[in-house]
Automatic annotation (TrEMBL):
Keyword Protein biosynthesis: no
Alphabetically ordered keywords of this record: Hydrolase
GO molecular function per UniProt: hydrolase activity
Keyword tRNA-binding: no
Organism of provenance: Amycolatopsis iheyensis
Pfam families: Beta-lactamase
Protein name stated in the entry: Beta-lactamase family protein
Gene3D superfamilies the UniProt entry points to: DD-peptidase/beta-lactamase superfamily (3.40.710.10)
């Protein structure tokens, strides 16, 4: 059922490749892979790694939660406590919690890379650009860039991801790019080539590829393993109380957890068939991971829907159809 649905989407050129897994903490109910790493390229296989894009965000949020459990920081710490250069800015009092819930006031998908071509210049733009008024929920990659910087005051971010998430979860091939054996993303005019193995997100490129909002690559088996861990309650990654706080709704209107998105009805990117307590995250490249705590189930969908262009939004209906079908397995 899922294979046929995704094969039709490939025939419609929504993506060149897809991989999926649906299951519980105890095992897999349905999984598969189809297509090619790029059009007319080699087949996608088990070792192929996918640009997770913003699915990086909840993995970095797990790092922040692990640091909080160990007393290295508090979720209610102000930004300036960990990044002193923000002490004299309008962002000094933003809390770690507000960054995690996208309620910091920092703007959303700003293409800073267009006018700030170095890491130093881009980070300075985040630090000095005035905040817009209000504290409504606004999805902000800038907030997760700052969370990556906060985490990095304790150790390099890639080492923290390995220590607190990928190693204990058994995700043996997940890493920040550049990586080999990757599924292609966009034919990028800025870079003058089809991007394969380098992070798709341009702001992440300028930042060096290791950052809090994007940059991780993983094979299907690793996202499958993370889904199983989360469906089972998140041990050994987090204590039960910490996990419960992460996935609870912390906002009014759009439902946001700590690094996770809740099931907004009717506006959820994965449709309305999942249980009301479902949480997860999508990635711009066509990736997603969702979990239903009440049913103990996870749903992984990996595609390269930006290949060779991001112009189409057909993945939106494919995502909904995939999850509508997957819940019936």
């Amino acid at each position: 059922m899922l294979a046929e649905l995704l094969a039709r989407a490939r025939d419609a050129r929504v993506f060149s490749a897809a991989a999926w897994s649906v299951g519980t903490a105890d095992g897999v109910l349905d999984r598969g892979m189809l297509g090619t790493r790029w059009w007319d390229g080699p087949a996608a296989v088990e070792t192929s790694r996918w640009d997770l894009a913003s699915v990086t965000k909840p993995i970095v949020a797990l790092v922040i939660a692990a640091l909080a459990e160990r007393g290295a920081l508090s979720l209610d710490d102000p930004l300036a406590r960990h990044l002193p250069s923000y002490a004299d800015t309008d962002k000094a009092s933003i809390t770690v919690r507000q960054l995690l819930t996208h309620t910091s006031g920092l703007p959303g998908g700003t293409p800073l890379w267009r006018t700030h071509g170095t890491r130093e210049s881009l980070l300075e733009a985040i630090r000095t650009t005035p905040l817009p008024p209000g504290r409504r929920v606004e999805y902000s990659s800038q907030g997760f860039i700052l969370l990556g910087l906060i985490a990095s005051t304790h150790a390099p971010l890639d080492e923290l991801v390995a220590e607190y998430v990928t190693t204990p979860a058994g995700m043996t091939a997940t890493a920040f790019g550049p990586v080999p054996d990757a599924v292609a993303t966009e034919d990028c005019g800025w870079r003058g080539r089809v991007v394969t193995g380098q992070v798709h997100d341009e702001n992440a490129v300028v930042l060096g590829g290791v950052c809090g909002h994007a940059g991780l690559f993983a094979p299907l088996a690793d996202l499958e393993r993370l889904g199983q861990v989360l469906a089972g309650g998140a041990a050994p990654l987090l204590k039960p109380a910490t996990h419960a706080e992460m996935i609870a709704g912390h906002t009014v209107g759009l439902r946001r957890g700590l690094g996770w998105q809740g099931l907004d009805v009717p506006g959820s990117p994965v449709g309305v068939s999942l249980a009301p307590d479902a949480y997860g995250h999508t990635g711009f490249t066509g990736t997603s991971l969702w979990v239903e705590p009440s049913r103990g189930r996870y749903y992984v969908l990996l595609t390269n829907r930006v290949h060779p262009s991001r112009a189409s939004d057909a993945i939106a209906s494919v995502r909904r159809e995939f999850h509508d079908a997957a819940v019936r397995i």
